[in-house]
Design a protein that fits this description.
The chain is built from 6 helices and 7 strands. By secondary structure, the protein is of the alpha+beta class. Strands 3-4-5-7 form a 4-stranded antiparallel sheet. The chain is globular and about 65 Å long.
């Protein structure tokens, strides 16, 4: 009789251990499933964009409204990178700017700099340029958005101001992929120069 009781206790113990093991296995499987699903979802959101600067890792984002403030900030960063530099920062600033603009527009500006021997003059004269933004106007809501920018590019040798050039741009703001070089997920496109006196007429 005692052996039967011992057997029953052992059986109940084994049953309890087995039940705990099964529950543990189920819990671990559920946790693993959700972790795996999260990893897969992240990978599905990750895409690779082929650009002139190589293949970049980027992420798809949910559709959202883009505010004029974001478009304006992108514009200001682009202008300061593209049009303000010296011999030391010229290449780096242009590289930063070219990630924020479509290829034809970027090449158009760089070709003008090359024709004007901008970098050579920086080296020759020890000069630099700075920009002072008068206005950035986002003319429409949503994307693509039409925009205008008006600014002064000032040319210095040492601390002496040599020339001041009034520049006006028209362009569109369009959506693109986010990546390390362009965290905005926005891009300047169809860039062109327009007469600066349009800014004066708008503000008279």
């Amino acid at each position: 009789m005692e052996k039967i009781k011992d057997y029953n206790r052992a059986f109940r113990t084994m049953k309890a251990v087995t039940l705990v093991s099964i529950l543990g296995f189920i819990s671990a499987t559920v946790i693993y499933y959700f972790q795996y699903k999260q990893l897969v979802d992240t990978k599905n959101d990750q895409v690779y964009v082929v650009t002139d600067n190589g293949t970049l890792s980027a992420y798809l984002t949910e559709e959202r409204d883009v505010t004029p403030f974001e478009s304006k900030y992108l514009s200001e960063i682009f202008i300061k990178s593209m049009f303000a530099h010296d011999a030391e920062t010229y290449d780096r600033h242009l590289d930063d700017a070219l990630h924020l603009v479509d290829e034809p527009s970027g090449l158009m500006v760089v070709e003008q700099f090359d024709k004007g021997k901008v970098k050579d003059n920086y080296i020759r004269w020890g000069s630099r340029t700075e920009v002072f933004i008068d206005s950035v106007k986002i003319l429409s809501n949503g994307l693509p958005a039409q925009a205008r920018a008006y600014f002064k590019q000032r040319h210095y040798i040492g601390s002496e101001l040599k020339t001041e050039l009034a520049i006006a741009l028209k362009y569109n703001i369009v959506k693109t992929y986010r990546n390390e070089q362009n965290p905005f997920g926005l891009q300047i496109a169809d860039l062109d120069f327009v007469p600066y006196n349009q800014y004066k007429s708008e503000n008279e």
